[in-house]
Amino acid sequence: MFADIKLAVATENDGMSAWRDIFTMGDLQYFRRICLAFGAQAMQQLSGINVMAYYGTVVFKQSVGMSEHLALLMGGFTSLAFWAGTVVSLPIVDRFGRRPLLLWGATFMSIGMAITAIGTSRKGDFQFGAAATFGIFFFYFNFGIGFQIVPWLYGVEITPLKLRYIAGAVSAASGWIWNYAVVQVTQPGIANIGYKYFIIWTILNFCFVWVIYFFYPETAKLTLEELDYIFMRPADRPQIMERQIMEDDEKQVSVSSKPFGQAGAV
After folding, report:
1. Is 73 exposed, middle or buried (0-12, 13-18, 19+ CB in 10 A)?
2. Which of 64, 70, 174, 185 is 20 to 30 Å from 124 at the Cα level?
3. Contacts with 71 (C-beta within 8 Å, 6 or more apart), sequence order
4. How far is it, in rounded angstroms, from Cα 19 to Cα 68?
5. How far apart are the first and last CA of the chain?
6. What is the DSSP string of 159-227?
7. Contact present, 85 and 142 (Cβ < 8 Å)
8. What pTM was computed for the model?
């Protein structure tokens, strides 16, 4: 493990400043990794979670047709669904991996938003209102499983040691930027286009499935140092491993050449 850490530090030590590195690709694809960190948090917010979190009671009142008292109660109950999904994700995020949780989360959130769109298309109808309510709870639960924890983990996992603090800041900034954008457009969106507003989030979540599938590699069950190899060209990986073997051999020769009793001396 210590050798892996030393190798990662040596590999990433290109003499450039960390802020300059984030705009370069090179063998370790720094810019790509920063973009993935930014995108993970962007997808979390553009899934539509804050449509429900900030305007849940508005959705229940204006789109589903509930009374103010019932809408407030349902807004509280949705938080329990969100909590339950998060609890489910805790023991499986490492066991099953980041990608499966993101892929299935985006898939089921798209379905939840589609059900919500259908349910809110007709106000005053009990069956449609029940469908919309189920869609919201279903969305919340699956967001808790797939998108509550993973985007926060992913942004710092995929970036190298020298850029990890920058990636954490960039991914967090992405979350708050898109959070603000969603909050600003939600109430006018519901007021002006009604149920069609939820179709937008349905399509976005469906698109995220393919973005994750094609662009986001798995990071589970790998050390932070091993993640560098995911982003290297295959031709570069043997050279790095060969360099590590040569350095280990040199250290062994250096230690064995010391007089007996001085091998451990500093």
Report:
1. middle
2. 185
3. 56, 57, 58, 60, 61, 64
4. 50
5. 22
6. S-GGGHHHHHHHHHHHHHHHHHHHHHHHHHHHHHHTTHHHHHHHHHHHHHHHHHHHH----TTS-TTTH
7. yes
8. 0.79
